[in-house]
Design goal:
The chain is an alpha/beta fold. The protein contains 19 helices and seven strands. It is globular.
Length: 446
């Protein structure tokens, strides 16, 4: 393939047209397989938490683009996670199969946890509100029995966005945006986030004012010099506007209460009905709810949580030395606790904020000793995903509950299965009458 052909294909991976993305990926992978594009073999690395443009990816990546990213750079595994929707799962699983990379798919949302109603957990300033996840989905399809739960997640997110735009339009007068035409249009699936709203307002200020710097100086209560220093750094300025206007104390912010988000139980019900795994999410251990982390994780395990998500970079890559020391200590404590509680780890960079890495640096001295925990978690969730997709024998299956009755047994099995199951290998002859040992033997021989 001619070098000048590669760049346009990579750009097409992020087209809002699904067929364009699929065609571009097939051409890129075919070129890589033919040796026309150099791609390294898979390395001992993974990013299992990366958002796509079906919620918000800071680089504009589609599910197909994430799969190509993993192929292009030799990631050992890649996992997509989107806020409130499963729209990208089918595309992502197909793209990973095409590219020959280990992949898993998930969803993230906020739920209300009444047992921690008076404590901030992992959503600063919002007692009782919990960022929470489901991982290991194999399809965008949601069974009819739990479809209303998925619809509720989507509709709640849209309603929060509309209310925020109404408040911000009043505060940012004389500029204004229309939610449907200016915000929803920025997404391929009609599922925007706060970050899309920021982009829409920045565009509106450029189009509707003669002096955007003066406008933002007034609305953000900053000097012209302060705005001038950041306005041309688009990622930095977008984060600044979001913090000033949409976070606690901002004109667009509305303090949530017990009714703002769904309870954790129906969210788990939907996840499990899809054959996926409920997954707790760790921030950094500094808020009251996470200071009681063993109590919290024990409660979440009782409610069905089977794994723990961590974003390593924000727990060690910190300029302030004292904060860095504190958060690294907390990170090691929670990883040790996860081992004790038999909670595999799902780690990644998110990619939903400008400046976040494409993949964690597992060689960094601060986290190098945790590489095995991180990679075993990646193999575990891929092992579940592949076993569920190919054989209907994932972690939540009737087979797993009978053949692997304890959490540790299941964790060990799916971690080993994830190591043995090659993405492009033909499916071995396996069925639910086999023992776990026999399944692994058959996978090893395949």
């Amino acid at each position: 393939m001619q070098p000048e052909r590669i760049a346009p294909l990579v750009t097409q991976l992020n087209s809002f047209d699904a067929s364009t993305r699929a065609t571009a990926l097939r051409e890129l992978v075919a070129a890589a397989d033919a040796g026309a594009i150099a791609t390294p073999p898979p390395t001992n690395s993974a990013n299992m938490h990366a958002h796509t443009f079906f919620s918000f990816n800071a680089y504009g990546y589609s599910p197909s683009a994430l799969a190509w990213l993993a192929k292009q750079h030799g990631f050992g595994a890649i996992g997509m996670v989107d806020f409130d929707v499963l729209d990208g799962v089918d595309e992502f699983m197909s793209a990973c199969a095409t590219a020959g990379v280990r992949g898993s798919a998930g969803i993230e949302t906020r739920v209300f946890l009444p047992e921690f109603a008076t404590r901030e957990i992992n959503s600063p300033g919002e007692p009782g509100v919990l960022y929470h996840m489901g991982i290991g989905f194999t399809s965008s399809h949601v069974p009819e029995t739990v479809a209303p739960i998925a619809v509720d997640l989507r509709s709640r997110a849209a309603q929060r966005n509309r209310e925020m735009v109404t408040r911000l339009n009043a505060h940012l007068h004389p500029i204004s945006i229309d939610y449907e035409s200016d915000v929803v249009s920025l997404t391929p699936g009609g599922t925007p986030t706060e970050r899309h709203i920021v982009v829409a307002y920045l565009h509106a200020a450029e189009q509707q004012t003669d002096n955007p710097t003066a406008f933002w100086s007034d609305k953000l209560a900053m000097t012209n010099e302060q705005v001038t220093a950041t306005i041309n750094d688009s990622p930095k300025f977008q984060n600044l506007v979001r913090t000033k206007l949409m976070k606690r104390g901002g004109a667009g912010y509305m303090q949530p209460d017990a009714g703002s988000f769904p309870r954790i139980e129906p969210f788990h019900q939907m996840i499990e009905a899809c054959g996926a795994l409920p997954c707790a999410a760790w921030l950094d251990g500094t808020l009251p709810g996470e200071q009681a982390i063993e109590e919290l994780l024990t409660l979440l395990i009782d409610k069905g949580a089977a794994a723990l998500n961590i974003i390593p970079d924000r727990n060690w890559n910190i300029p302030d030395r004292e904060q860095k020391r504190l958060k690294i200590d907390k990170l090691y404590q929670v990883v040790a606790l996860a081992r004790d509680l038999n909670l595999p780890l799902n780690v990644g960079t998110e990619m939903n904020s400008f400046g976040q890495k494409l993949i964690d640096d597992f060689d960094a001295p601060e986290i190098a000793s945790l590489r095995r925990d991180f990679m075993d978690g990646a193999y575990f969730i891929y092992g579940h995903t592949a076993m569920q997709q190919r054989y209907d024998m994932g972690y939540m299956s009737a087979w797993a509950k009978a053949a692997l009755p304890t959490r540790r047994e299941r964790n060990d099995f799916y971690t080993q299965a994830g190591k043995q199951l090659e993405p492009r290998a033909a499916s071995a002859v396996i069925d639910s009458t086999m023992s776990a040992i026999d399944v692994l033997k058959r996978l090893d021989a395949n």
